[in-house]
Design brief:
Layout (H helix, E strand, L loop, with lengths): L5 E5 L4 H12 L6 E6 L7 E4 L2 E7 L10 E4 L3 H13 L3 E4 L15 H4 L9 E3 L3 H16 L2 E9 L7 H15 L18 E2 L12 H14 L5 E5 L1 E2 L6 E9 L5 H8 L5 E3 L11 H4 L5 E8 L8 E8 L3 H13 L8
Parallel strand pairs: 1-2, 1-5, 2-4, 5-6, 6-7, 8-10, 13-14
Antiparallel strand pairs: 3-4, 8-12, 9-11, 12-15, 14-15
Helix pairs in contact: 1-9, 4-6
The structure holds NADP nicotinamide-adenine-dinucleotide phosphate (NAP).
NADP nicotinamide-adenine-dinucleotide phosphate binds next to helix 1, helix 2, helix 5 and helix 9.
Length: about 350
């Protein structure tokens, strides 16, 4: 590599944007110059990048001249509008939104699972939905050895998955609730303090599935390259500030034991076993927060399947990291054309 890349972050003032910067710093990611982009609301603000105050510019079609890598986390509307301009300007785009995930020309990549797809990109590489990443990191090591035919996932999703404003709403509404005050929610569709509710994406009136659930179903099939895998999902928002949890039950082609599963997951890249029955200690958001690894535990035979083909487990992951910023930075690290200019 002759020079360090010029990197743009579109959505730099958001929850994922902040984690892009933190992740790049932690991993000593080489950056020649950072372009900080957000909406017109943030133009003129500054973000700290390695001790320098970088002025935030409004994201426009003209933002990408000279940019080598564009990390997008500004919502799917902004991605649809501005990603083509970034690609046209010659940048490789890593997109965290859902805008291009199911496009057959766009690799949908979790590096530990299908990193080999990165080299097929035509300018855009999509980061999968955070609930999908959280589940698939724990399922892939098993699927490779004993094909998973069916999986049922129930999510417990943190406020951070809905962005910085949702995290603030959880804090403010909890404080108001404890002080006996009424809080009028602005971000979430329902009271968030001391409550939980069906995921805040739109419901398909025909299937009854919400947008998050539909993404997990379709993206699982695309990433596993397995159209036959049966996926059932229920996505729920819980009053946790950061890190998603998921209860997962899966059925395999051949019989499987909990010991086999533990062995398959021990040492799997990006996965950490947290499975202490004696101490009743299993994956929790407080332990997953700020961690790169997906925590997997409560591994047990699904007693409702007497054939011995099914296992239940519980996972937790920081979806701002492995579910977004970290996964994107890992993709950039694997790009063959990081040798630029
Ligand atoms: N949060 C997660 O865990 C997570 C995980 C995976 C993927 N994602 C995806 O990442 C994206 C951002 O999520 P987030 O949680 O970081 O949201 P967020 O905290 O609400 O931040 C949104 C960011 O996008 C910018 N933005 C919004 N509309 C824009 C526009 N029209 N033009 C330019 N910039 C615009 C905002 O700028 P201003 O500050 O100027 O408004 C802000 O920087 C979404 O597509 C989301 O689906 C999020």
């Amino acid at each position: 590599m002759n020079r360090d890349p010029v990197v743009a972050i579109a959505g730099v003032t958001g929850a994922v944007g902040a984690e892009f910067i933190a992740t790049m710093n932690r991993r000593d990611f080489r950056v020649g110059k950072l372009k900080a982009l957000a909406s017109a609301r943030s133009a003129g603000k500054t973000v700290d990048f390695r001790g320098q105050q970088v002025v935030v510019e409004e994201l426009t079609e003209r933002s990408f001249a000279g940019v080598d890598i564009a990390l997008f986390s500004a919502g799917s509307g902004a991605s649809r509008r501005f990603v083509p301009a970034a690609v046209k300007a010659g940048a490789v785009v890593i997109d965290n939104s859902s805008a291009f995930r199911m496009d057959p020309n766009v690799p949908l990549v979790i590096p530990e699972i299908n990193g080999r797809r990165i080299r097929e990109h035509k300018g855009i590489i999509a980061v999968p939905n955070c609930s999908a990443i959280t589940a698939l990191m724990g399922l892939w090591p098993i699927h490779q050895k004993n094909r998973i035919t069916r999986v049922i996932i129930s999510t417990y999703q943190a406020a951070s998955g809905a962005g910085a404003a949702a995290m603030d709403e959880l804090v403010q509404s909890t404080r108001a609730n404890l002080n006996g005050q009424v809080y009028a929610q602005k971000v979430m569709p329902h009271p968030y303090a001391f409550n939980l509710f069906s995921h805040n994406t739109a419901i398909d009136p025909e299937t009854g599935y919400n947008g998050e659930e539909t993404k997990v179903i379709h993206e699982t099939r695309k990433i596993f390259e397995d159209d036959r895998i049966a996926v059932g999902v229920t996505c729920v928002r819980v009053p946790v500030l950061r890190a998603h949890c998921e209860a997962i039950t899966f059925e395999c082609e051949k019989p499987i034991s909990e010991t086999r599963v533990r062995n398959m997951l021990a040492g799997a890249p990006g996965v950490r076993l947290v499975d202490d029955r004696t101490g009743n200690y299993f994956p929790m958001p407080v332990d997953a927060s700020g961690q790169d690894d997906v925590l997997v535990g409560r591994i047990r035979q699904d007693l409702s399947d007497p054939t011995g083909h099914s296992i239940s487990m519980f996972v937790s992951a920081d979806q701002l990291l492995k579910g977004a910023a970290l996964n994107a930075v890992q993709i950039v690290e694997m790009l063959p054309q990081r040798a630029m200019a």
